[in-house]
Amino acid sequence: MYPEKIIKLLREVKSGRLSPDKALAKIKDLPFESLGFANIDHHRALRTGMPEVIFGPGKSVEQICRLAGQMSKKGVDVLITRIESPTYKKIKALLAKAKYYPQAKLIHFPSGKISKTDKGLILVITAGTSDIPVAEEAAVTSELMGHNVTRIYDVGVAGIHRLLAHKNSLDKASVIIVVAGMEGALASVVAGLVNVPVIAVPTSIGYGASFGGLSALLGMLNSCVPGVTVVNIDNGFGAACAANAILTLVSKK
Question: Which CATH fold topology does 121-251 show?
């Protein structure tokens, strides 16, 4: 339940339009609700501004659908990450409103219309085409949070002129998410061109010595450009959350 909905509930009680007993019934499962196999953190949106998200791998279709259903009852948009297409088809049969983003491997189960924010622009950049699935996880997650997102894909350091052709987009961005595998050098290049936060996402893309993304991770952590923030390997979702937190803080000033 989003903070504004709880405020509305309290105002209805104050005005007499809603009885205390009925208000209690609406919030009785806060701050968390036990389903036996999981404890849903209904207070997360109050604490962090973002409701709990369902991590798909390791959960059965029935567990995912029950979690999504209970969360939706609280008036939150439900996001389910890392879902393959065959699993989505099974979920769709149980949750008719579910929308799938195949490249991002995300399911969105809406409770209402997404409100666009004016907190700033998130720019998502990839080094290569193979990095796009992770970038789409970041981009779609950001869009579902209400942010404006611009994408620039396949502009890695092997042909840096491709990135420089988008200098106007770099200058307009409020936060930049850079997604790269191999040696992860693109994050340093981008951070050296801009004066806004850069969130680097190493991917597991690369040949054997890339060690499943470890080379890119270490390369980004060792960036000679100060101020680059690095999330875990293939963690586009985490990058979107970091970008959201930055823009939310800026908008409060």
Answer: Rossmann fold (3.40.50)
